[in-house]
Amino acid sequence: MKLLTKTTLYYFTLSGIVFIVGGIITFFLVRVAIDQDINEFFNRAEERLMKRIEKGEFDLQNPPKYSRFVIKSLAQKPDNQALMPVFKDTIMRFDNWEMNFRQKTFVREIKGKYYQIKFVKSLEDAESEIEAVLYTILGLFVALMSVLIGFNYFLAKRIWHPFNQTLAQIKNFNLRDKKKLELPHTNIVEFDELNRLVGEMTEKIRQDYNSLKEFTENASHELQTPLAIIQSKLEILIENPNTTEEQSKLIESAYEATSKLSRLGRALALLTRIENQEFSDFQTLNFQQVLAKNLEHFKELLELRQIKLTTHTAAEVVLQIDPSLADMLLSNLLKNAIRHNIPQGKIEIDLCNQKFLIRNTGKPLQVPPHTLFERFQKDNPASGSLGLGLAIVKKICEVNQFLIHYTCEAGWHQVEVVFHKVNTGPKNKNLVSL
Predict the structure, then answer these.
(1) What is the pTM of this model?
(2) What CATH topology corresponds to 281-418?
């Protein structure tokens, strides 16, 4: 949920609570005021009636018809409780319609006799007033909420505009871009402070990234030179006829270790470059042609290992991908399928517009398949593999928004790469791993 929507929702909720509570209080205050007005009417009517009785304007036994009061003579004096006035709401029916009335009943002593007097007052006007008040409150609530929401929306949108500009700049931030962030200046202290801190932070991150990138490149490059010298010297020692068998074994062991270290340095440097998305030359490629080229490279190795290859490929599978990444993806998967196959094994390849599938025979796994995508994870720790091949494949898939799955069932190892429906390049162009 967006911040603007959330704040508007809070305003709406708070205003609604205030209006509901205020409406209830107003309703009861109006009811109290109406009740007081009706009681005053009864008091005035009682006062006028008693004056008319004292003046003898009408006979108590025969009061005027159609009046708002009824007089009834009592045979004896009522008890004290009956002398208290009683109020009651009632309904009076007149032919086919009815009206709500309030009735006041009380007892008065007139000329030595007790009389029960009933006054009635129509509640239609009171109910109309209450209804008018309720509709007025509801109308005010709707009108005020509409104005409040609209005003808050446009005001908040205007106030938060600098923040949205800063957010857009951060989204487009690229560590490899030497251009500084152009953050807007505002008259809001908090936003200016935010922009200042973001600017300082991004510059510090860029400096740290460049320093670490330079160190990684230099270290990788400088390590390869002494390793190459060591390997060449070890090769000379291996070919030396005066070297004993025991010395040859030690030299070969050292040579294998330096070779592994050299390959490890190149593989880690490659992973770092992929993570930093330095392979950004995205082109429209026919993936089938890339696959055919890689299969041609491994043709002799397949024949040497006596591995049967079966392919089912579409004539044209178009992807947006860096050519180097496409080669690395297929090369690592093919190399993995050959290296971990069995003698006279099989490899099956399926390629269509939706996915690339490679299956090979092999020994059962000793570890969960998904762990092999992690760095330095191997099924057989004693093997000479670096354990980085599938990690490189996984990283290439992440950069290109591909999905990858590894399963192993009934002696068959299967790696499935599912292509994105509309692949337009890396998912996060500005993400750089340090």
Answers:
(1) 0.51
(2) Heat Shock Protein 90 (3.30.565)
